[in-house]
Write a structure and sequence with these properties.
NLP_P60_dom, six-stranded antiparallel beta sheet, 6 strands, mainly beta, cysteine-type peptidase activity, 35% strand
């Protein structure tokens, strides 16, 4: 991924908030980053995300739960 799109992804969740262009919820597209303090997910569209909820849990698709997330477009 890194070489295919020339994008270096950060190691910590806090850094994801600033790696791309911030967009509104209405502008968010599938593949955008959904950031909230201490957590990062990938937006799938229609209010759904894919994420690993916490260590030891499996990756899952679920409804967005964050009350005021930051959406970040990285492409």
């Amino acid at each position: 991924l890194r070489e295919a799109i020339d994008l270096n992804l950060p190691r910590s969740s806090g850094s994801y908030r600033t790696i791309g262009k911030r967009v509104s919820r209405a502008q968010a597209q599938p593949g955008d980053i959904v950031w909230s303090p201490g957590h990062v997910a990938i937006y799938l569209g229609n209010g759904k995300i894919i994420d690993a909820p916490r260590p030891g849990k499996t990756v899952q698709v679920r409804q967005m739960f964050q009350s005021s997330p930051v959406f970040v477009s990285v492409l």
